[in-house]
């Protein structure tokens, strides 16, 4: 059975539109395919930032790690396994200070593992997490998908770069934007996001 990995990162819980739209979209994909959903809520269960013990652990074979290093690498190994097992990845984040939440960046630091999700070759790095499609749900107070502020949007290009580096090149984005422009604008933004989610789910 196919698997959907749902990654949410907003600390706003049920009030978060990136969370709710991402969850709704994952549910739509599940209804279309019968896939299972594995949900990793990075705000509810935050990951530890990488440190010296972790970076030492991932640079040596598992059977040569100290007990402390093994513990540091254990969660990363589990996150990598989740990513590799998934057929589809849905990532929800707010656009904060022109980029993603730090909790999501930490998840990326845990799953971008040389030898597991990418490898170095004579011709450069090659992604190993291939055969997947990813969907991004980006929520923001302003409008960053186009127009004057688009150059300040570092979230979408960063996530596409990282996913592409890991071998995931099919990436679609659902924007929930302009939320700070008043209730009417916010309502329209949410409706547009759900409409696009419905279209992408049907096309999946």
Provide tags for this entry:
single chain; 204 residues; alpha/beta; Rossmann fold; 5-stranded parallel sheet; two-stranded antiparallel sheet; 6 helices; 7 strands; 20% strand; globular
Strand content: 15-25%
Oligomer classification? single chain
CATH C-level category: Alpha Beta
Distance between the termini: 16 Å
Fraction of residues in helices? 40-55%
Say how many strands there are: 7
Spell out the helices and strands N to C.
EHEHHEHEEEHEH
State the domain count: 1
Mean pLDDT: 95
The DSSP helix count reads 6
Radius of gyration: 18 Å
Shape: globular
CATH topology: Rossmann fold
CATH H-tier superfamily = Flavodoxin domain
Largest sheet: 5 strands, parallel
Class computed from helices, strands and strand pairing: alpha/beta
The name of the CATH architecture is 3-Layer(aba) Sandwich
* Unreliable residue stretches: none
User: What order do the strands of the largest sheet run in, or round the barrel if closed?
Assistant: 2-1-3-6-7
